[in-house]
Specification:
The structure holds 3 protein chains of 3 kinds. Chain A is mainly β. Chain A has a single domain, classed as Immunoglobulins (Immunoglobulin-like), CATH 2.60.40. Chain A contains no helices and 9 strands. In chain A, strands 2-9-8-5-6 form a 5-stranded mixed β-sheet, with no helix packed on it. In chain A, a hairpin with a 2-residue loop joins strand 5 and strand 6. Chain A is elongated, with a radius of gyration of 16 Å. By secondary structure, chain B is mostly helical. Helix content of chain B is 41%, strand content 7%. Chain B is built from 12 helices and 7 strands. In chain B, the strands form 3 sheets. A 3-stranded mixed β-sheet of chain B has the order 6-5-7. A two-stranded antiparallel ribbon of chain B has the order 1-2. In chain B, helix 4 packs across helix 8. The radius of gyration of chain B is 18 Å and the shape is globular. Chain C is mainly beta. Chain C has 1 helix and 12 strands. Classes of the chains: A mainly beta, B mainly alpha, C mainly beta. The interface between A and B is medium-sized, with 15 and 13 residues. Strand 4 of chain A pairs antiparallel with strand 3 of chain C.
Chain lengths: 106, 271, 165
């Protein structure tokens, strides 16, 4: 289980621009580090982060090794209707992690 | 004469000798003269951080240390060991039962005749109550549980009132004020005498343990106070003690006493 | 599983929601040596930018790249980018790219937005290996490119850890 922290306002007014903050646990191994034996540690990062609002994609980020460990991403979206915002992180070696948050829009 | 390794004489380690012995030894060791920081001038190193790093610590959903607290919550509820018990089975909700606990650790353990720090206490519970194999010191699981427990002390003042800790506080003070390593400096020389001044572009903190276990940007992960002490010892090119050693616990006990009354911030973020 | 925590730090509405996500966790720690990987060069960064921008002109303006001028630790640097744009279906910021000069790779992050964003403003944490220039480039729906550049000084922590931890 990958711990993730999501900050989505529980309630918003229709048309309001809300900020969404996400923080997920991941070492984001760059692929540029070496062990004491001189072996390169292979890259192992989250490369894609997608957010969807009631099924429609509202945000997509391509991440690179330059993203810090435990990736933190803040973005904005318009509160259009009540429903669910879903988050998906995909990475090297078939890594997939998901989370979701409900929002009530008045 | 500077030593590469500084360790406590066996009699002090075992019997917790009186302060008199410590003072006698002080004069024979290469002790750096340092003045303690006046109580009202003590500051958390939070104050020295950049605006951005402070912002990282301030909100729970932006503080990477909280990811460990989340993991700790899952471990708290997981049944483990031959006793098939979860922490929650004895301690209930950590938010109630663990309030203030981290603020008064290391705590004196009467059975063992010496202080035990937070990670040590969790390990003892795991072995004796859960009858489960130990989590390695500095392992992710142990840090997660430690972060969970420490989080429950956030905002509370550090307490160091137990008189039984006095000999260990004194031992810790000896370690803190004795020159060590190839650089031949004592902790006190930087952290008591030169706090606030710059070293390699970074402001020197007073070194109070208000935020442990801490998410250190340098480590890109959460680590214990012992790990941080190791970093400093390596910085002075001294040979480090092993994790869990009596020297570290004595230092922790002293540092908590030195920070008595200051508020806990765990899990903190530090550069 | 949802737990809600009432935290007061920001003074805003009670909005924190904590989640545990399903998925595979990353591997644990490894002992390593501090070997510096080959750093990229300004020329490589220009090449990476050219791949995105092609022959189009990159205008200065509209983009605000926020980085601390002096970084405490290059492992985690707060980075935010905001772009002036009405974010309407007729006129919006499509993509925000961030590039750097001296990390082993020139790309930092690329973010795809649409009118649903409401505001072209993102924040993240990035790694910077050295003192260098960082460039944010915004691609608009009308095909134009805008940019902002920041020079960052990166210091290291005073007491670096030994690798044989």
């Amino acid at each position: 289980m990958t711990p993730a922290l999501i900050n989505v306002p529980a309630k918003a007014k229709r048309g309001e621009i809300i900020a969404i903050k996400t923080l997920i646990s991941h070492t984001m191994e760059t692929g540029f580090r070496y062990t004491t034996a001189g072996e390169r540690i292979p890259r192992n990062i989250i490369h894609t982060f997608v957010a969807a609002y009631n099924g429609e994609e509202i945000f997509r980020a391509e991440l690179f090794p330059a993203t810090s460990a435990n990736p933190f991403i803040t973005f904005h979206t318009v509160a259009t209707e009540s429903g669910t915002i879903e988050f998906k992180w995909s990475g090297d070696n078939g890594y997939v992690s998901t989370a979701s948050a409900k929002i009530v829009v008045e | 004469m500077s030593r590469a390794r500084l360790s406590l004489p066996d009699n002090m380690r075992r019997h917790g000798c009186a302060a008199a012995v410590a003072i006698a030894l002080l004069s024979s060791m290469n002790v750096a003269e340092a003045a303690e920081i006046p109580l009202d001038q003590r500051r958390s190193s939070y104050d020295l951080m950049s605006r951005e790093t402070k912002a990282m610590q301030d909100e729970d959903t932006s503080n990477p240390g909280m990811l460990w607290v989340l993991e700790g919550e899952a471990l708290w509820r997981a049944k483990a060991g031959e006793a098939n018990r979860a922490c929650a089975d004895c301690h209930g909700d950590a938010r109630d039962s663990m309030k203030g606990v981290a603020a008064r650790h290391p705590a004196y353990d009467a059975k063992r005749g010496q202080p035990v720090d937070l990670e040590g206490r969790i390990s003892i519970c795991r072995a004796e109550q859960q009858k489960a194999p130990a989590f390695a010191l500095e392992s992710r699981e142990l840090l997660a549980l430690s972060a969970l427990v420490a989080r429950q002390s956030r905002g509370m003042p550090i307490e160091s009132k137990d008189e039984r800790l006095r000999p260990f506080i004194d031992k810790g003070r000896v370690l803190f004020t004795t020159r060590q390593g190839q650089l031949d400096i004592a902790c006190a020389q930087c952290h008591d005498d030169n706090w606030g001044k710059k070293l390699a572009g970074i402001a020197m903190p007073q070194a109070h343990p208000t935020g442990y276990p801490v998410y250190r940007l340098e480590w890109q992960t959460v680590g214990s106070l012992q790990r941080r002490l190791r970093n400093c010892m390596i910085g002075t090119r001294a040979e480090t003690y092993l994790y869990g050693s009596a020297e570290y616990v004595a230092l922790e006990t002293f540092l908590m006493w030195r920070a008595r009354g200051m508020l806990m911030e765990s899990p903190a973020v530090r550069p | 599983m949802v737990e809600s925590m009432n935290e007061h730090h920001s003074g805003a509405t009670r909005r924190e929601v904590f989640k545990l996500a399903g998925g595979l966790a990353a591997a644990g720690a490894v002992a390593m040596i501090a070997v510096r990987p080959a750093l990229s060069t300004p020329a490589e960064m220009q090449a990476a930018i050219a791949k995105i921008v092609g022959d189009a002109k990159v205008n200065a303006g509209k983009v605000k790249l926020d980085l601390p001028p002096l970084v405490e630790n290059g492992n985690t640097v707060a980075c935010s980018v905001s772009v002036e744009s009405p974010m309407t279906p007729a006129d919006y910021c499509k993509v925000i790219h961030v590039f750097n000069e001296h990390n082993p790779q020139p790309n930092v992050i690329s973010v795809h937005l649409g009118p649903r964003a409401g505001r072209a403003s993102i924040a993240t944490r990035i790694r910077l290996s050295d003192t260098q220039k960082v460039i944010a480039i915004a691609e608009m729906s009308d095909g134009s490119f805008w940019s902002d550049t920041v020079e960052v000084i990166v210091t290291l922590g005073a007491c670096l850890e030994d690798v044989r931890i």
